[in-house]
Amino acid sequence: MVSTRSAAVTPGSLTYTDFPWIIEHREDRCTLCGQCTAVCPKEAIRLSHMRQRLPKLDVMGKKRGSDYRTFTGIRQQTDMAHACIGCGMCSMVCPNDAITPVPGTNENRTTFFDNQKGEPRKRGGRRNVSGPTLLDRIVFDRISMLTDPALDAGRHEFTITTTLGRILSPEDYLDRKINGGWIPATREIFPFVIGSMSFGALSPNMWLGLLQGVAYCNEVLGIPVVMCTGEGGCPPWVLKSPYLKYIILQIASGYFGWDEIIRAIPDMQCDPAAIEIKYGQGAKPGDGGLLMWYKVSKLIARLRGVPEGVDLPSPPVHQTLYSIEESVMKMIQTLSMAFGHKVPIYPKISASTSAKSVLNNLVRNPYAAGLMIDGIDGGTGAAYNVSMDATGHPIASCVRECYLDLAAQGKQNEIPIFAAGGIGKNGNVAQNGMALIMLGASGVHIGKYIMQATAGCLGNEKNRCNVCNIGICPKGITSQNAKLYRRLDPDLVAERVADTFMSISTEVKKIMAPLGRSQSLPIGMSDALGIADKAAADRLQIKYVC
Amino acid sequence: MCRLALKTANRPFSPYEVLTAMEAMQEGYDGSGLGLLLRGMEFEDFKYNPKFPILSGIAHTEKGWHQMTSFMEDRGYELKYDHRFSMHPELIEANDRYRYFVRAYRMPERFRGIAKEKQEAELLKTRLALRKIGEENNDLSVFSFWPDVAMIKEVGWPLQIGDALCLHDGQIKSRVCMAQGRQNTNYGINLYACHPFFIQGISTMTNGENTAFVPIKEWLLGKNITGYMGYQSDSEVFAHILHYTLKKLKLPLAAYKHIITPLSTSELNSHPQGDFLKGLRDACKRLVIDGPNAVIGTLPDETCLLVMDQKKLRPATVGGKKGMWAIASEICGVDAMIPDRDPSLDFQPMREHTVIVPPDRKELLIWSQHDQLPLPLAA
């Protein structure tokens, strides 16, 4: 026996019921195949030898005694490094349904120990707030019925594309057409864009799957989906391929991957869909990008021009720029020039109170092609937990305010506003996106939803999984470890991309048809929106319905 | 759904003819209102000079009436003719109508010989100023102030209103007459909300509902163009889009259809001016109407037009003969206006068509959006 005195009881000692996820294991069903322990990305469970006393009672001989059996069973680790993340991979591989993680109902005592080695918790994923979001609560209540017939989503033709790129005012357009002036480049795209997830954040298989899916949507299904690379460049073969036209290249404050991109310009077969200049991200406003060393593989290192296995933090701001004027004017103009003024260049910022001032600056910059605003519910590959949970600004009011600001100037047609951050958080992707569009966005970016829908990302807003940062993604979506990402078949991801966009497209029609809209996306059609929350209705200038 | 009727003829005719067409189509509306626009005026008791702007509207009180007359005098307008309707007030539902007026003025001395655009701006500003005065105490409604145009709007059955104002007595005639039955019912009853809508000589009326009303309205309001206001009806924006196309963008009439119902990208890819039209569609994207509507309008030169929404979800027919044409929501309306035409030549436009009755009224022009746009700069 082990004496109680010799058991290691330290300030950080916890039992497995203190953990947010507890492994439930049924010994009677377990065949000890070991698949669960092999698949567990956190090594939260291990096979261990256990001893069990078997009481031995000889009634006739009036003797008592004990027998012991030694066997192999499954134990949950109780140290922070091996805390179960609830991903459920163990139950996925178990042939006998003998094991599954369940959420701990005890108060989550591990929170106090998330700062191991003095480092606050970092994770990937999204803000851990579950339940319906404001976007989920918006309803479309202006239904054509008696005064006018609703359209038929299945029978009528619908135009569900939006414009990415600066649109001139009608007067300017005609003036430049007559006098031979420059007409800014625009793209007609599907309003749901695959948001920026970098080639470092995503595994090569995931990225390839997305790209294949996007190409299929465009070339076979006729749905002009585009995807954004995020920071970190783009594989050289893609830069030189005809698929580049479906890709928005992102430049962020770390400039990772941009050497490759600039060098590839002469060899590009076509222009990219657009260039996104990232100034901020909704999940971690005021913070730069972060690719943790676990994920800086040989391939990523080569692509980004950095050594292997080092953390790659991007600064919170573009270090060469001192002011908003410079950021907007200098950077946008320079990039526009680099691509021969043929590619829309737009900035991405975090939703915040300064979004309007950025927007007003863009309105006065003839080269600015749009504004992408990312709200507090946006996702990330890696950030400090506190940033994700407690810093930022919700997307709906930010977009609405910006749109109304443009509308007051009669310029809402000119700078398209794209919105992101929590679209489809609870699965209602078309509803959330269309609500934002009717609040004034020209389109939306979706990231986490795409990972969930196309690759079965296990993360949710109940603190499940969230390990995108350390490269142990149990599904192989955000890992650079070949052993893990080989779990993901790019072809199947591509198939899901097509499924997803086909169904979004159908749902969008099902929203537009009853409103009587078919020829143009109902951008700013706020008269169609209602919400059972007086304060939100007033703030968003939509109807209060209850 | 509203019913619409327009008749245009070389020889002036009584607006009562159009009201009989409204009566023929009476099953299509609920008698909640009438809007009439007359253009190419002729008065029985006055030799009208078509350069004189005509002010038309309703004074609801004597005070409103005096405010209006003194405002016009102060602004330097000289009254040349004041039409007196032979009234049957008992046929009017509303009881706050002091006087219906159609008054022709001579332009103030200071506007003689100045640029046409400035004169037109003055006429618009005067109408808006009067509207503002009327809105203060709700005692005056001014529908139009423009040479050779008169407008009448009232709540009730069209024919009954015609009888109330004795429009059958031949005192007023016109070469173009547009009528719409039904008040706007989507947004509160308001005389200004009654079709047709008018701005600087350009007028349209519509049946159906404009589902893209709010974004279009917000965009037009944001342009801060004088007169782009009101919007008591969801289709008032059609008149303003037409005005914007012709007067502000100075595009030909054929561009109107391209702006309100642009062709799809694949259609434009094979259009002779696809590149230009794609740019125009993007630049004017907020003006896409989405429908369902049939839009009927007239221009200052007495051109008349009819266009459909992109899905063609509203009926409209045009028919007639040399010198005389009619457009109506239903064939029975056209029959009532021009019974002796060859009905086999009636035309029901499809989604890509713009039907034009040119000022000479010799023959109908049908423009397709797939045709070359008559626009030198687009080439």
TrEMBL record, chain A:
User: What positions does the domain 4Fe-4S ferredoxin-type occupy?
Assistant: 21-50, 74-104
A GO term for molecular function: glutamate synthase activity
Q: Where is this region: Disordered?
A: 105-128
Stored Pfam families: Fer4_16 (PF13484), Glu_synthase (PF01645)
* Biological processes annotated in GO: glutamate biosynthetic process
- InterPro entries named among the record's database cross-references: 4Fe4S_Fe-S-bd, 4Fe4S_Fe_S_CS, GltB, Glu_synthdom
Q: Which UniProt keywords apply?
A: Amino-acid biosynthesis, Glutamate biosynthesis, Iron, Iron-sulfur, Metal-binding
Ranges annotated as biased composition (Polar residues): 105-114
The entry's family comment says:
Belongs to the glutamate synthase family.
Q: Which PANTHER family match?
A: ARCHAEAL-TYPE GLUTAMATE SYNTHASE [NADPH]
Protein's name according to its UniProt entry = Glutamate synthase
UniProtKB/TrEMBL annotation, chain B:
Q: Mind telling me which InterPro entries this protein's record contains?
A: GATase_2_dom (IPR017932)
Where does the Glutamine amidotransferase type-2 domain start and stop, copy by copy? 2-361
Q: Which domain of life is it from?
A: Bacteria
What is the official name of this protein in its record?
A: Glutamine amidotransferase type-2 domain-containing protein
